[in-house]
Design goal:
The protein has a single domain (about 1-25, about 45-155), classed as Nucleoside Triphosphate Pyrophosphohydrolase. It contains 3 helices and 7 strands; from the N terminus they run E-E-E-E-H-E-E-E-H-H. The chain has helices at about 60-70, 135-140, 140-155; strands spanning about 1-15, 20-25, 45, 50, 70-90, 95-110, 125-130. The longest helix has 16 residues, at about 140-155. The radius of gyration is 16 Å and the shape is globular. It starts with a strand and ends with a helix.
Length: about 160
């Protein structure tokens, strides 16, 4: 079984006294079923994340991926946790992969959300700010919803952040 190590972030900023987080909308997947009628799929919202490059530390990856996928720069407040899961690739012969994703809580510093390089549009349809309190109903993946919940709990316990 292959192993992949990734890292990402829950980037927050305050608006009207409430925390908002940066999310990415994944590009829609084409329906490859023969004869299937075209239909509008519900947008898939996720946290920015990506593979750790050789020689890179996970925290460095998380900061890089946040910038590449959202257009904003951030600083790390704390590590939230790791998500571990197994998935089967839909490419490369359908190999099974054991994946670990380290997530960090980050504070927004600068930049405009969705101001990303054109070549990133194959990975990110758009980036946007959403209320952190709405993460449970907006994020598509259970592990990422858990990370957003941890971020919310951390911020409740550390209002100075």
């Amino acid at each position: 079984m292959l192993r992949e190590i990734s890292a990402g972030g829950v980037v927050v900023r305050k608006r009207d006294g409430n925390p908002w987080m940066a999310v990415i909308e994944l590009p829609p997947q084409a329906d490859r079923s023969a004869g299937s009628p075209a239909r509008k799929a519900k947008p898939v919202l996720a946290l920015p994340k990506g593979l750790v490059d050789k020689g890179e530390k996970p925290v460095e990856t998380a900061l890089r991926e946040v910038y590449e996928e959202t257009g904003v720069t951030a600083e790390v407040i704390t590590k939230l946790s790791d998500i571990k899961y197994i998935y089967t690739r839909s490419w490369a012969g359908g190999e099974r992969v054991f994946k670990i994703v380290s997530f960090y809580l980050m504070r927004y510093l600068s930049g405009r959300i969705n101001d990303i390089a054109p070549e990133m549009r194959i990975e990110v349809a758009r980036a946007q700010w959403v209320p952190l309190a709405d993460a449970q109903k907006l994020l598509a993946y259970k592990g990422e919803r858990q990370m957003a919940q941890r971020a919310l709990e951390y911020l409740d316990e550390h209002p100075e952040d």
